[in-house]
Write a structure and sequence with these properties.
Largest sheet: 7 strands, mixed
Structural class: alpha/beta
Number of domains: 3
Oligomer: single chain
Shape: globular
Number of strands: 19
Number of helices: 11
Helix content: 25-40%
């Protein structure tokens, strides 16, 4: 195993618990080492720091897997995945669709594993984890006995690691659609073509917060995707739910899910650009008791920060203008480049632009199967603000 040393006066963040080591923090950067090779990291004095994998082509040169001296082999992955799943079973023992492995938060940087009833979807984002893909599949088969394992390796992050984009079935066979149950509602999801890995598992606990907020009201669900928020709103007593999304495919899934749950009489879904549609509705004087905004990440990199902030400010301003006095705005951001303080500032600016006063009733994060490590700020990415508009 090759040994890499931290530069003098570098690595404080790593020594405090963060698993990333950037290329400029290493005393030497070997160029002939194969991407994904396992390495030992030492501090400038030669003391052991941890074991991780190396990629000479990535800005994050090393991602630590462990801070103890141990072999990185199938037993290592069995232990980590089993430990991650036991954590979920303790918190959500009755849930059968959840995130099993959340990358760095579970000590397996570059690996996402989602369970959907009897099927598994995984996503590998780094060269280091790609080398262990067959081992990971064997571990998942042994622990979960799934009907299928699907690789959703279609995220652009892979290209930064020199990996190709792909979607494929790694094990077993899949049906055209998989059906999962959330809070007594059934959802058809597409494991190969759906957004993320098929469903917004990170919002699972936030959907339930609609109870007591939507009863008898008319609800607008912006960026509705397959109807997660919409169907929960109808289940919790909304009189009418209008779901909008720019994807024709997503609208088809949302309509099918409404029919499956017998809620099609109260749910209407249509394709629309939300920015334009909200402006048109404002010109017609339309108002809602509750509006839900759950957009894709507007800030995908630091370089896109200014543009993304303008997008969040504008979409929230337009939504706030359509809410009745005393009504509710539930608004989300999944951009980890935008922290809680920054998101609240954007919402405050949007309220000022709309001439409204916003009261923060509750601020929520991602579901507990997406754990947040205090030593790794990047593990906290989803923000969900529940506001009352005066």
């Amino acid at each position: 195993m090759e040994i890499l040393r931290l530069r003098r006066h570098q690595g404080r963040r790593v020594l405090q618990g963060h698993p990333w080591i950037f290329s400029n923090e290493l005393a030497q950067l070997p160029r002939d080492m194969e991407p994904g090779a396992v390495v030992e990291v030492q501090d400038p004095t030669g003391r052991f720091v941890g074991i991780g994998y190396f990629n000479p082509h990535s800005l994050i040169a090393v991602r630590l897997l462990t801070r103890t001296s141990q072999a990185i082999d199938s037993d290592f992955f069995i232990q980590r995945v089993r430990q991650a799943d036991l954590f979920r079973k303790r918190l959500i023992p009755k849930e059968r669709s959840y995130r099993v492995v959340f990358s760095e938060a579970d000590g397996l940087p570059g690996l996402i594993v989602d369970r959907y009833e009897n099927d598994i979807v995984l996503q590998v984002t780094t060269a280091g984890m790609e080398r262990w893909l067959s081992t990971i599949c064997e571990v998942l088969i042994d622990l979960f006995h799934p009907g299928a394992i699907v690789a959703r390796n279609d995220t652009a992050i892979r290209e930064l690691e020199g990996l190709k984009l792909e979607k494929r079935v790694l094990y077993g066979t899949i049906e055209s659609h998989t059906v999962i149950t959330k809070d007594g509602l059934e959802f058809e999801i597409d494991l190969l073509e759906g957004q993320k890995t098929g469903f917004y598992l990170d919002q699972s606990e936030n959907y339930a917060r609609l109870q007591g907020l939507v009863s008898g009201g008319t609800i607008l669900d912006g960026f509705c995707y397959a109807g997660g928020w919409s169907l929960h709103a109808a289940r919790y007593g909304a009189q009418r739910v209008i779901g909008l999304d720019s994807s024709e495919k997503a609208i088809g899934w949302a309509k099918a899910n409404a029919r499956r749950n017998g809620l099609e009489d109260r749910c209407e879904f249509r394709k629309a650009d939300l920015f334009d549609d909200l402006r048109n509705q404002a010109s017609m004087g339309v108002l809602y008791e509750v509006i839900i905004l759950d957009p894709p990440a507007f800030i995908k990199s630091k370089a896109k920060q200014s543009e993304g902030l303008r997008g969040y400010r504008e979409i929230n301003r337009r939504a706030m203008a359509l809410i009745k006095p005393g009504g509710i705005l539930i608004t989300c951001s999944c951009s980890y480049h935008l922290d809680r303080e920054g998101f609240q500032k954007v919402l405050s600016q949007a309220a000022k632009d709309a001439g409204r006063t916003a009261r923060l009733l509750e601020f929520r994060l991602q579901s507990r199967d997406h754990p947040i490590l205090l030593s790794i700020p990047e593990t906290e990415y989803l923000k969900c603000a529940i506001l009352m508009m005066d």
